[in-house]
Recover the amino acids of this structure.
């Protein structure tokens, strides 16, 4: 597996971001949504983005996850030539391209399902779908029943044990790699997909492109069940997502500390697994809508960029935009891009600080690949941890309150040493294994060791 810890992701939901029609009429001329994304590249480069995850963009009926054709770009966004041109431009700018692989289900307008509706038991595709029963009826009055994803009958579950289904999907992957030179896939609903299929997909795609990256959407459960050698390379870290917004919303830094220690410390669940970390995405409330105090967006994103794994930004959230799910649709989570977002006061400030967090991460071996170790969790809502490699040591201290706090770190590994805050460039001197730090409200310090005055277990070649 290739280690993607040097990647910083930007996630877009193209049908929403590009302002595409909500429903596909299957007859309109191709739009220009995909090529409109080119204008965002300078802004992405300012954020340090080197990987773009583009949500579903192949022909579908409505929201993109009800696929109609795996071999053609959704006409509401453009055409296949547009995607080829876009990936070429992104690659020229050093940005990898990850697409959504929606392989668990199709839409009802997919050719195989339409054939089943027409020919019933006589359809050559009757074994393409899971649990079809021609002796019953359904809400669409099809004259048969079938299994839908999570009970949604508009998303018809594919039978991935069927060789013809696999060949059709793997053929699409081969086409995407050969025609568009994509660099990887995010597997939708990976936790309910046949592991045999995922293993075959891994072998198949890596034979076509050795560095091809596969990341699975796993909302709950053991990420290692699918993310391991011979299967997926990574998984969506929903556990960290939940603790990020919740700890800052509820003023309970223990939540974040517990998750990071549980996942990444020595003896933790995933110290050697590169997980995909995010503050929000197209399926959950915007993180700005989940916090009581918008000031905590700053330490939240600081924590995201300093944590083990791969950080990702969902489009618009770098400006602190709002959006909540409702009982009817997810449109508020997936709005059309508005240039006005970039002009709000908090938007300008947040964008600037995320750019700084991103730059520090790109330049730090420890933040990208260092071991994680918890140093302090305090009832004062202060959390400190280290990231360490043989050549660099970083200590991150987070203040989740709206008050200045004095933080005293005591650890036998600190010894007598000097540290620089990479954000403020202030110097702090540690004596007798103790480092005293002033923490500003809703902020953090990212401290790098620059000198050691005596022999100490915290020894580094830097400085």
């Amino acid at each position: 597996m290739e280690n993607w810890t040097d990647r910083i992701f930007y996630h877009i939901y193209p049908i929403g971001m590009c302002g595409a029609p909500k429903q596909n009429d299957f007859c309109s001329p191709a739009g220009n949504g995909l090529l409109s994304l080119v204008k965002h590249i300078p802004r992405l480069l300012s954020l340090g983005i080197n990987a773009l995850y583009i949500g579903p963009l192949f022909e579908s009926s409505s929201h993109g996850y009800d696929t109609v054709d795996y071999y053609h770009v959704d006409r509401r966004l453009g055409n296949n030539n547009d995607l080829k041109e876009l990936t070429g431009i992104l690659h020229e700018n050093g940005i990898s391209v990850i697409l959504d692989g929606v392989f668990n289900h199709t839409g009802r307008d997919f050719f195989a399902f339409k054939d089943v509706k027409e020919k019933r038991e006589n359809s050559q595709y009757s074994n393409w779908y899971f649990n079809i029963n021609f002796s019953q009826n359904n809400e669409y009055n099809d004259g048969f029943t079938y299994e839908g994803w999570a009970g949604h009958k508009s998303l018809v579950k594919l039978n991935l044990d069927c060789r013809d289904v696999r060949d059709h999907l793997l053929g699409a992957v081969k086409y995407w790699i050969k025609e568009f030179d994509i660099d990887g896939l995010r597997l939708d609903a990976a936790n309910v997909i046949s592991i045999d299929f995922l293993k075959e997909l891994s072998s198949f795609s890596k034979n076509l492109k050795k560095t091809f990256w596969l990341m699975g959407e796993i909302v709950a459960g053991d990420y290692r069940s699918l993310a391991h050698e011979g299967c997926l390379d990574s998984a969506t870290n929903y556990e960290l997502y939940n603790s990020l917004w919740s700890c800052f919303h509820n003023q309970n830094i223990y939540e974040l500390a517990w998750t990071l220690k549980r996942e990444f410390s020595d003896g933790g669940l995933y110290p050697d697994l590169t997980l995909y970390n995010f503050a929000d995405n197209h399926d959950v409330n915007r993180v700005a809508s989940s916090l009581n105090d918008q000031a905590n967006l700053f330490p939240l994103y600081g924590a995201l960029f300093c944590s083990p794994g791969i950080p990702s930004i969902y489009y618009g959230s770098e400006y602190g935009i709002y959006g909540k799910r409702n009982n009817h649709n997810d449109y508020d989570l997936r709005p059309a891009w508005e240039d006005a977002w970039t002009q709000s006061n908090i938007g300008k400030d947040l964008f600037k600080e995320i750019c700084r967090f991103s730059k520090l991460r790109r330049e730090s071996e420890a933040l990208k690949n260092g071991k994680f170790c918890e140093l302090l969790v305090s009832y004062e809502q202060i959390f400190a941890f280290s990231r360490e490699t043989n050549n660099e040591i970083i200590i991150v201290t987070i203040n989740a309150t709206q008050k200045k706090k004095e933080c005293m770190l005591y650890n036998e590994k600190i010894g007598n040493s000097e540290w620089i805050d990479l954000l403020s460039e202030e110097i702090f001197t540690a004596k007798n294994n103790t480092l005293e730090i002033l923490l500003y409200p809703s902020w953090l310090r990212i401290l790098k060791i620059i000198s050691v005055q005596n022999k100490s277990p915290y020894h580094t070649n830097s400085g």
The two ends are 33 Å apart (CA to CA). The chain has twelve helices and 21 strands. Confidence is low (pLDDT under 50) at residues 459-463. Residues 59 and 74 are 4 Å apart (CA to CA).
